[in-house]
Amino acid sequence: MKALYRAAERLMAMDDATWARHANPMSAYTRFTVLPLLVLAIWCRVFLGWWAILPTALVLLWAWINPRAFPPPDNLDNWASRGVLGERVFLNRREEVAAHHRAWADGLAWASLPGVIVLVIGLIWLEPWWTVFGMVLAVGPKVWFVDRMVWLYGDWLRDTGKELGDV
Asked: Which domain of life does the UniProt lineage start with (predicted)?
């Protein structure tokens, strides 16, 4: 699982400045638009044919731009910012993170898999209910993951004596 997390971080080219900008709640919340927009772009193949690659590419570009699209926040004392900071702690210090946080993070990542499978089936068959149900099943664990990262970050701050905003 660790390799998968690292690969995703490398693919997104997340450096210190990008993480700081991604901690903006607008970045964190608009990040949740990526999957619905991707589903819509793929669904567009019905009437765009191969041209659906264009909106799909635009959504993937948005996924890359999103963590860079907003300025660093003035205040980090909110759920979204703490979730992003917790994710950064999780990725940078995975071995130092409490076992229960690692287990929950890995479990929630795996919990998204059935939703992704249902979503892909819905997209292949062009079944709206399967698609929406799969999307909900895939996103639910991701939201829970962010919430766990908020908890992880709070524990990490307490255990290390660091200040809000440190990672």
From this structure: Bacteria
